[in-house]
Amino acid sequence: MKNFLLLALMILFPCLIYAQNNVYIINESFNETSLPSGWTTMDNGLYNWYISQSNICGGKPNEAHLSWTPYFNGISRLVTTPVDLTDITTAVLALKHYPSFFGTNQAIVGVATSSDNGTTWNTVWSEQYNTNEAYNILETISSPDMGKNNVLFCIYFEGTSSAISDWYFDDFEIYTIEDISVELTSIDVPSYIVYGNHDISFTIYNSGNTAIQTFKAKYTIDEEMIEQTFYTNLPSMESQQFTFDTDFDFEANKTYELSVEITSVNDSNDDESNNVLTKNINTALSQTQRTPMIEHFSSSTCGPCVAVNTAMKALTTNHQGEYTYTKYTTNGPGIGDPYFTEEGGARMTYYNVLGVPQLFLDGADQGYSAITEDNFTNSYNDLAFAQVRGAFDIEGNTINVSADFMSYVNMENVRAFVTVNEKTTTGNVATNGETEFHHVMMKMLENAEGNVMNINAGEYQRLEFSFDMSSTNVEDMNDLEVALWLQDYETKEIFNSHYAYEYTNHCYPVQNMKASIEGDCITLHISWDAPEQGTPTGYNIYIDGQLIEEKYQHTSYDNEADIISLVDDGETHIAEVVALYEDGMTSVGVTCIIDNDWINVKENNELSFNVYPNPAKDIVKISANNNQISTVRVYNTIGMMIDEIEVNSNEVEINVSDYNPGVYFFNVDGKTYKIIRNEELRI
User: Fold this and answer.
1) Contact 656, 616 (CB under 8 A)
2) What CATH class does 293-499 carry?
3) pLDDT at 608
4) Which DSSP symbol is given to 373?
5) In CATH, what number does 182-284 get?
């Protein structure tokens, strides 16, 4: 329990204000299993308040919970112990809360104060609600009770308790604020990014009374430090995102520790306790299309579930082939759904599901309504850093599942989940009027806690299961689907998902892949071994995420003409090969960094050509020591040939004055030289 009460003496309190530190009057996160010591309930609903082990509001478990039962109509209060507000005229109220309504009902929630032991209550904040979602309240408050030394605060509900199923509250704070104070609330660089240049963004919150006009900040990463002065006009109790002018070039397949610090505010020092954040940034080799993962908690005894099921059917019909879906039937309301399983119950506990319907999209709580079109589209368009592929077949009542989980970034202690679902069920019809249900989970393989994996970037891990489904609620063994997804068990983030291919063999990926740039002819060479099982119809080859060969028929690939831009440019390049199978099925990709073994032949004394000057302004001269030059080809950095000169001599001068300044590649009878054209150079 974090319940720090301001009981300061008159002589001490002005010193605290002068020190310019926020002073907490109430700071309660409801971390114990019962109501905070000394807190009481008043008026109606005396027994409706308790502590639940949930985090519906978005804070950490636990949280205060107001239940609709026993029924009441009026005001119900959760009341704090008395606090001393001597010499305090205003304060800040912070509160997280989440209402859960039945239908279109509405009710009022608020915060009030009393200096006469609860006889008279003065409201400092209130709001009427009718929507199920998380709310974060942040308000400056004042009341006639300010300045007194024995003041109660309360969180109150006003309305008919039957209008709600539950109302959750967390992180209830009352505090005074200093004149100038800034809180660094987040580093806004994602935890997983593709290597390359990225902006360094962060968000600050003005927790002081004075508008922020200017502040200094710095970021530190990989022993590099960038400091900048930012100019703004950020009002009190508002947030704003900022971005450093200097970005950072992240290398592939690394983990960076990024630190951001606010060093001064309005040309003065600020409290350092909330001005520094550190975050690990993991760089991925590539990214891929996301298949959003839908997890849906429902019951055939739940009346409000009917409308959500109807809306979800419409959503998925409009997005065929773009989602993965698992529905967990629950053991409530009432007698619950006949197809409830203990594994589904474990998943309810994992997500802190206390009532249905409730949905999650890629691990994020969507509340008690159907997933919106916008939320689904945003998830689908958010590229992923992992691939998931699998297949299953049936032998009698036994299902055999093989699944590959591939990551473009190093992942430790992630969990792979496998659920066997039935596409349509009717045997669990109960009391809500529905006659069939979809994507109903029958079994989690191996269990509801998932399968722990450590995956190196560019590699994959495989799971294989055989399970006798006769012990489950399966109605038809020919109506199954298998949902696969990869998830961070701590944050609940889902990296990607996919349905396993149905009633077929597994699509095995390629083996022993290698990629390099080799030899004087700067040839890109990619090779791999055929999959351990199965017969691919071809292979797709990608360079830096771009498809360069489709349905390729060999296990070795060479490219000389189009690969100039990959040579000696100082950048990392990635090759990937995906095995293709019949009916549009594919394996996970196998990925590796292209090893650049190419040597600039100009630096090799055994070579027979001299190319100079370099850099050049007007003329590039090429001479052969012991043989004639037949052809010179000139390429730009994207591999386009811009000039071809037939020579038949042992020396040639090429006029480059019309070339734009930049880097060019001169291919002299198969040997390539990098030349910089610089218009400022004087020959």
Assistant:
1) yes
2) mainly beta
3) 61
4) H
5) 2.60.40.10
Which amino acid is present at 92? Answer: V
Closest CA to 416 of 351, 487, 355: 487
Q: What tens digit of pLDDT does each residue of 58-69 get?
A: 888 899 999 999
Residue 459 three-state SS = coil
CATH of domain 13-176: 2.60.120.260
Neighbours of 514 (CB within 10 A): 14
Token pair 């709310």 is found at 135
CB 645 within 8 A of CB 632: yes
- Contact between 97 and 109 under an 8 Å Cβ cutoff? The reply is yes
Distance in angstroms (rounded) separating the CA atoms of residues 660 and 595: 30
Number of residues that this document lists for the chain: 683
- Residue with the two structure tokens 């009022």: 108
How far from 432 is each of 303, 308, 523, 528, CA to CA, in Å?
5, 12, 66, 56
Strand locations in 142-250, DSSP E? 152-160, 164-176, 182-187, 192-194, 196-198, 201-206, 212-221, 224-234, 239-243, 248-250
Q: What is the CATH number of domain 601-677?
A: 2.60.40.3080
Question: Tokens representing 231?
Answer: 């100019």
> CATH for 511-596?
2.60.40.10
**Strands, E assignment, 330-456:** 358-361, 364-365, 386-395, 398-407, 411-425, 437-445, 451-455
pTM of the predicted structure, to 2 decimals: 0.75
| Helices assigned H by DSSP within 97-148 | none
Task: Tell me if residue 426 falls in helix, strand or coil.
Answer: coil
402 residue type, one letter = S
Distance (Å) of CA 168 to CA 100, 358, 636, 645: 8, 15, 62, 77
Confidence of residue 21 (pLDDT cuts 50, 70, 90): low
